[in-house]
């Protein structure tokens, strides 16, 4: 792995933000709980108050995850950190890989909109989860700001690029298939979706961890040039990165960390 990040920050656990266990009969998601969530939300007596209110929709999702079944969302604790980053960085265009049922897309899309941003793209591999997400984003009143794209991270990014919808993103959020982070980042680098000025937020650096990804973003340009020589999927090793690690908590109550990588230049 490359050098340690330039700064490491810690946050404290908020017990009120902890969800029920994700694991039920050996399953962590995809056992019908996502459709049950949609039914739960649309059966709530306060449904009319949720319409057009992203914060209330997020609270309703949190209620479900605390009282019915745990969900693999980024959650309130890490979510608050990313919202803070969005408020400061003010991205106009955000690309998210791994949308699940739309929790992060609603939370971060809303934060981006409030900070003056234009478009949040949420790529999700499962068409079923993408349908749940689209419905909740619509309920939250964010239909014009957040667009859900069905496909893997690589397929979705390539399609958005080919259709001319995305060139360079101001922020990229990785929260999908952990072994795909590095290859999908390299694709973003090749296409110029990541370039000087882009901020990359990568979740789950501890749970379950991602040493290959950390090695790439924390390595010097010289080392990345070496690493890329024999590699099949090449990135742009000339991009200069500065890293911060923020320790926080999964909604399961487990300690985790996010890697915040700022692309600040290109080395000739
Ligand atoms: C941890 S969840 C995302 C949670 C979401 N970001 C949130 O906080 O609300 C990971 C999601 O990535 C999706 N996924 C898995 N492999 C993927 C891939 N290669 N490309 C895009 N999405 C993928 C899964 O279907 C799942 O919905």
From TrEMBL:
The keyword Transferase applies. The keyword Methyltransferase applies. Residues 225-256 are annotated as: Disordered. Belongs to the class I-like SAM-binding methyltransferase superfamily. Cation-dependent O-methyltransferase family. Keywords: Catecholamine metabolism, Methyltransferase, S-adenosyl-L-methionine, Transferase. One of its GO terms (molecular function) is O-methyltransferase activity. This is catechol O-methyltransferase. Its EC number is 2.1.1.6. Pfam families: Methyltransf_24. GO terms for biological process: catecholamine metabolic process; methylation. It comes from the Eukaryota. Residues 237-251 have a biased composition (Polar residues). It is an enzyme of class 2 (transferase). It comes from Triangularia verruculosa.
């Amino acid at each position: 792995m490359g050098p340690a990040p330039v700064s490491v920050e810690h946050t404290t656990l908020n017990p009120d933000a902890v969800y029920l266990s994700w694991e039920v009969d050996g399953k962590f998601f995809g056992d019908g709980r996502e459709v049950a969530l949609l039914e739960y939300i649309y059966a709530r007596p306060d449904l009319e108050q949720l319409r057009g209110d992203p914060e209330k929709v997020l609270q309703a999702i949190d209620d479900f995850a605390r009282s019915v079944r745990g969900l693999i969302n980024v959650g309130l604790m890490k979510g608050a950190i990313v919202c803070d980053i969005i408020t400061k960085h003010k991205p106009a265009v955000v690309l998210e890989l791994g949308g699940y049922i739309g929790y992060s897309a609603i939370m971060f899309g809303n934060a981006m909109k409030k900070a003056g941003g234009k478009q949040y793209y949420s790529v999700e591999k499962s068409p079923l989860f993408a349908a749940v997400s689209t419905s909740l984003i619509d309920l939250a009143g964010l239909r014009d700001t957040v667009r859900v794209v069905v496909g893997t991270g690589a397929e979705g990014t390539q399609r958005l690029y080919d259709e001319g919808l995305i060139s360079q993103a101001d922020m990229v959020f990785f929260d999908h298939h952990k072994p795909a982070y590095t290859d999908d980042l390299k694709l973003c680098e090749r296409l110029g979706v990541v370039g000087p000025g882009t901020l990359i937020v990568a979740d789950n650096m501890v749970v379950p961890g991602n040493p290959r990804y950390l090695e790439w973003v924390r390595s010097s340009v010289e080392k990345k040039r070496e690493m890329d020589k024999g590699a099949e999927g090449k990135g742009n090793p000339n991009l200069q990165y500065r890293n911060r690690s923020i320790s926080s908590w999964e909604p399961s109550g487990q300690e985790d960390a996010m890697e915040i990588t700022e692309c600040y230049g290109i080395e000739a």
